[in-house]
Amino acid sequence: MQSDQASTSGLGNQGFSTWQWVTPSPGALNPVWKQIKGTVTEFDGTVLTLFDGVSTWSFKLASSETVDSLIYETGNTLLVQAAAKNGLFEIMHSELLEAAAKDSKKAFPWGILGTASLAGGWGFYELHKRLQNKKAQLAI
C-alpha cells in the first residue's frame, strides 16, 4: 500500500509517498495514512489539534492509542501518524519531538533577602559600636 504523507521540513510542506505493508483486502479501499509534524494547539481528551505551520489538523484518538496528557500539552511539538477512517484521521501513533518551555513561577529571592539582612545587621552593629565609642568619649 502506498500512503501519502506530509513533511514540515525546513524546505516547507512537501508531499511525499512511503510504503507500508498491510493485510491484503481485495475489493476494499486502501487506507490513507498521514504523518504530520506540528505543534499542539488543543487537546480535549479525545481530539488532538495540531498546527504544522501552514494548516490546522484534527485527529481522533484510536482505541489502541494510550493517552498521555503530558505529550498532548499545548505547545509541544509532535509527530503523529494517523489513518483516515470515516472521514476523520485517527491517531495510530504519536511521538513527542520537543516539549514546550514551561513558564516557571519566579522563586522567592531568598539569597538576596539573606544578603540584605546580613548587610543590614552588620550596618546596625557598626552604628551601635560608634555610638558606644562616642558615649565613652563623652563620659571621660
What does this protein look like?
- The structure is a single chain.
- The protein has one helix at 110-139; strands spanning 2-9, 12-19, 33-43, 47-51, 56-61, 77-85, 88-98.
- The protein is α+β, with helices and mostly antiparallel strands.
- It contains one helix and seven strands.
- It has two domains: 2-98, Nucleic acid-binding proteins (OB fold (Dihydrolipoamide Acetyltransferase, E2P)), CATH 2.40.50; 109-140.
Number of strands: 7
The helix tally amounts to 1
CATH arch. level architecture of the largest domain = Beta Barrel
What is Rg?
31 Å
Top keywords for this entry?
140 residues; alpha+beta; OB fold (Dihydrolipoamide Acetyltransferase, E2P); 2 domains; five-stranded mixed beta barrel; two-stranded antiparallel ribbon; 1 helix; 7 strands; 21% helix; disordered N terminus
Short summary of the structure?
The chain is an alpha+beta fold. It has one helix spanning 110-139; strands spanning 2-9, 12-19, 33-43, 47-51, 56-61, 77-85, 88-98. The protein folds into two domains: 2-98, Nucleic acid-binding proteins (OB fold (Dihydrolipoamide Acetyltransferase, E2P), Beta Barrel), CATH 2.40.50.140; 109-140.
Helix and strand topology:
Elements: E1 2-9, E2 12-19, E3 33-43, E4 47-51, E5 56-61, E6 77-85, E7 88-98, H1 110-139
Parallel strand pairs: 5-7
Antiparallel strand pairs: 1-2, 3-4, 3-6, 4-5, 6-7
